[in-house]
Amino acid sequence: MRRQTAPLLVGAGGIIGAISRYLISGILPGVGGTLVVNMIGTFVLAVATTTVQTSRIRLFLMTGILSSFTTYSTFAVQTATASPMIGVINIGANYLFGIIAAICGLIVGRRLLWFS
Question: Within the chain, how many helices (H) and strands (E) appear?
Answer without folding.
Answer: 6, 0
